[in-house]
Write a structure and sequence with these properties.
It is built from eight helices and three strands; from the N terminus they run ααββααβαααα. The chain is mostly helical. The protein has a single domain, classed as rbstp2171 (2-Layer Sandwich), CATH 3.30.2220.30. The longest helix has 14 residues. This is Phage XkdN-like protein. InterPro entries: XkdN-like, XkdN-like_sf. It comes from Peptoclostridium acidaminophilum DSM 3953.
């Protein structure tokens, strides 16, 4: 671990690099669909809100918002599956374990490890 203290000048010079890092995406393979999806970074408040949801609903919301390709928000997709609540598409397409896996990968991509997400929830509650 590097304990180098950052300077204001370094933060300013890394502005573009920091912005690009926050726009990072990743490809994840979904076995049941035999293909990949593209996930993106989500913001802290959204992830925190989702972690407080019950019955695994938070994971489905993270997946719905965190997958950018294919576009799960496309109304044509919702119509094809006959759903009224757009977020329900997640449970229609993915197996329960895939929802949990993809949610975890989106959270990790967003900069959290399994312990730090608990810290965010505790921080918000206190």
């Amino acid at each position: 671990m590097n304990n180098k203290k950052l300077t204001l000048g370094e933060l300013i010079s890394k502005k573009t690099q920091i912005k690009e890092a926050k726009e990072k995406t990743a490809e994840k393979f979904v076995k049941s669909l035999d293909g990949t999806v593209t996930i993106k970074i989500l913001d802290r408040s959204f992830i925190s809100d989702c972690t407080e949801m019950e019955n695994g609903e938070g994971n489905a919301h993270i997946v719905y918002e965190g997958i950018v390709e294919p576009n799960l928000k496309d109304t044509q997709l919702h119509e094809a599956y006959g759903i009224k609540n757009p977020a329900d598409i997640v449970d229609m397409i993915f197996l329960p374990g895939e929802v949990d896996f993809l949610s975890g990968e989106i959270v990790k991509l967003s900069g959290y490890d399994s312990d730090s997400i608990k810290d965010v929830v505790e921080e918000v509650k206190n």
